[in-house]
Amino acid sequence: MSAIQKTQKQAAALREQIQYHNHRYYVLDDPEVPDAEYDRLFRELQKIESTYPSLITTDSPTQRVGALPLSSFDEVKHAIPMLSLGNAFSDEEVEKFGKRISDRLNVTDIQLVAEPKLDGLAISLLYEDGVLVRAATRGDGVTGENVTQNVRTIHSVPLRLVGSDYPRLLEVRGEVYMPKQGFEALNKRQKQNNEKLFANPRNAAAGSLRQLDSKITATRPLAIFCYGVGQVEGKKMPSRHSEVLECLKAWGLRVCPEIKVVKGIEKCLDYYRHIGEQRNSLPYEIDGVVYKVNRLDQQETLGFVSRAPRWAIAHKFPAQEELTKLLAIDVQVGRTGAITPVARLEPVEVGGVTVTNATLHNQDEIERMDVRVGDTVVVYRAGDVIPKVASVIKSRRPKKSRKYKMPTHCPECGSELVRAEGEAILRCSGGLCCPAQRKEAIKHFASRRAMDIEGLGDKLVDQLVDAELINDVADLYLLKSDELAGLERMANKSAENLIAALESSKLTTLAKFIYSLGIREVGEATALNLANHFGRLELVESADTEKLLEVADVGPVVASNIVTFFQQAHNLDVISKLREAEVSWPDVDVVDADTLPMAGKTVVLTGTLTKMTRNDAKQNLQKLGAKVSGSVSKKTDIVVAGESAGSKLEKAQALGVEVINEEAFIKLIDSYKG
Ligand code: D41
Fold this sequence. Notes:
This protein has 24 helices and 24 strands. With 674 residues, it is α+β, with helices and mostly antiparallel strands. α1 (3-27) packs antiparallel against α2 (35-51) and α16 (510-516) crosses α17. The radius of gyration is 34 Å and the shape is globular. Residues 83-85, 115, 117-118, 122, 138, 175, 227-228, 290, 292, 309, 312 line the site of ligand D41.
């Protein structure tokens, strides 16, 4: 055997192995080897093929992607038309179907195959001598489009059939779809890249299959389930549909595992209900089930009417999409002040549930769809998710409609709505005073790292706000123990304890107080920087953006959050009420950060410290002007490694960064404190 023949044999053996593992992974969902092994085989084959391009075959697993973009799709005429399916929307219609076939065949208790009806696109795959040579969309059933390049990128479509007993010519029919998970991931990616979102998995699958550049299709998580055959030459097929499906499985084609053989219409309806219950937990979207007469001779006897077989019917689930009228657009304020526009709709039944509200997500989404009050809209509801307005029927738009404008002020508290740069959502700037945000703000205010009010947990905050005993954080300090004692599950003793805790929380630090205010994106570190930079709260309140940008770690977004917060009169009111209640803190001696002993140093804390908390260590470092970071890099100056330090310590050692233990760390800070 010549050297090249040997290599050719080696390539063929690799292809066979890759094909086997591909089938195990993508078709059977039962991988045998780790991904790394698959990758190794794949790279080995790639290496051979790049050295000897003449050895590349069209069914080589390396050839799924790589074809040049098309300028248009060619037409494909189906040798045998791809039939359409009649629909049934109720048990009665299915029973009528059962009666029709029984009467025509003159038999009762007919055997049927029940299949989930995938919500994707019907496709035809043509295999010649076991090799995929063409894939076409159904189109109008007679003529479709040649989408071979795109379908080749779908991993669950075998480029070569398994075994050797397949027909010389085999046309397989199935449904290409996008799994729910893949759909969510794709839309997330589209959003990040500022590209258009797909309304549902079906549209996403259709859009992906219609790409002229198969490299794009290759990035889309498509899959296939095969449900039948068209043209077959060179082999006698079995006599039942269920057996045909078994053959397809044996030849490496993917068939839906939920498919069942049932006897009689009653069992079909049982199947429908069973699948209906499974629907939300299935990893793909279905819009109903399909019943097919199992015996092929009976199918032939029944024949078809106007392109739909008499021997099959689709039993649809109630629609998940309906048309209705948009009556108004309201906005809702979430816990963090996020504003969500909500569509108020003329009540409409969607998938068995009456829908009167649907989310419009955000301002961008409204602008993208240009949705207007008075529009006829498509409402979509899937599983347990919140109904959403999927699209607008522009042709039904009333003449005098006006573009929707988002409000500029919070509907709950009247504060200005602000949109941070690069963010899609508007937020209420009301902070402490907006009722929708009040509870969250109070919980934050009371938390350990903020005002540290012991005994004031989340549940109690909810109770206090619901009982209207407090409206804002300042009201906390006006609470009386007899008011508290009147609350459910509140003993006299705990009421007194809370009053005492409130009292002792009054003396705080400027940094903690700023942090307690809950200004967006002003965390502990920023609050400390602000306190150290300005020294007095009045100076923080009156600082403009330019002044704020001088503070360590304050960027334009944080600066603008701070300015907006202190522009709201009610925030200033709350602060003055707090001061009246004798909440106080010592002013901070302002030191020029650059002159601090550890200015410019970046320190990483890792492992467990025994003599102080991680947080105390951090604050000590920050007071000395050091920056505390969470990850080790070349820019790290010191790593403080406590007990059982792990990967960060290893990384520091690898990078040659100075590492000190807790003892040395304490000595270090003490030496600076002097
Ligand atoms: O899952 C499906 N979407 C599905 C579609 C299925 N499981 N079986 C189908 N069977 C047929 C016949 C009976 C005509 C061979 C179908 C379709 N047709 C179909 N899909 C799109 C149009 C027709």
